[in-house]
């Protein structure tokens, strides 16, 4: 049996994993490796966002809505921007300058998003929820990850082949 994990630790692990994948993407030149890393990033982000949408954000909303907090609106808009960048990248040859440029932008966007999310959402969750409640949310998060699609429904599931 695995040790229980709280939802914040689970999502912070996602942040570290995804940041590492995007840094690798920013450093490789091989089109096949670029394609592989891109698809893995899309898959990991899809799973991460599914947990936030199904578990974390509803709990945050229920706990802090009376404060008139707009934090979730900002984080949701950032998710939309990240997904737009990924969708745009899916239409480009993986070894093209445009793809590489967007990959570098994605790295910066993700680092900023993750940092702000950890400083706002995660910090408030840690101070506003008991350890037991965060572990229960972690249990739900693991279930949500196991049942989410590998790719967002509206997102292309491949990077096009461009004669490489």
Describe what is shown at a glance.
The chain has one domain: Four Helix Bundle (Hemerythrin (Met), subunit A) (Up-down Bundle).
Describe the protein in words.
The protein has 164 residues and is mostly helical. It has one domain (7-147): Four Helix Bundle (Hemerythrin (Met), subunit A) (Up-down Bundle), CATH 1.20.120. The chain has 5 helices and no strands. α2 packs across α5 (131-147) and α3 (71-90) packs antiparallel against α4. The longest helix has 34 residues, at 31-64. The termini are far apart. Mean pLDDT is 85; it is low at 153-164.
Question: What features would you highlight for this structure?
Answer:
single chain; 164 residues; mainly alpha; Four Helix Bundle (Hemerythrin (Met), subunit A); 5 helices; 76% helix; elongated; disordered C terminus
């Amino acid at each position: 049996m695995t040790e229980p994990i709280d939802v914040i630790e689970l999502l912070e692990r996602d942040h570290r994993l995804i940041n590492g994948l995007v840094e690798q993407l920013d450093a490789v030149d091989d089109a096949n490796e670029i394609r592989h890393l891109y698809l893995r990033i899309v898959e990991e982000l899809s799973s991460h966002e599914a947990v936030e949408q199904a578990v974390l954000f509803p709990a945050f909303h229920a706990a802090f809505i009376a404060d008139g907090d707009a934090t979730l609106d900002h984080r949701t808009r950032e998710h939309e921007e990240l997904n737009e960048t990924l969708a745009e990248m899916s239409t480009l040859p993986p070894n093209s300058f445009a793809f590489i440029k967007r990959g570098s932008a994605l790295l910066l966007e993700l680092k900023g998003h993750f940092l702000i999310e950890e400083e706002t959402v995660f910090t408030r969750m840690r101070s506003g929820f008991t350890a037991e409640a965060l572990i229960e949310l972690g249990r739900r998060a693991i279930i949500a990850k196991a049942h989410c699609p590998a790719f967002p429904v509206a997102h292309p599931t491949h990077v096009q082949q461009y004669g490489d």
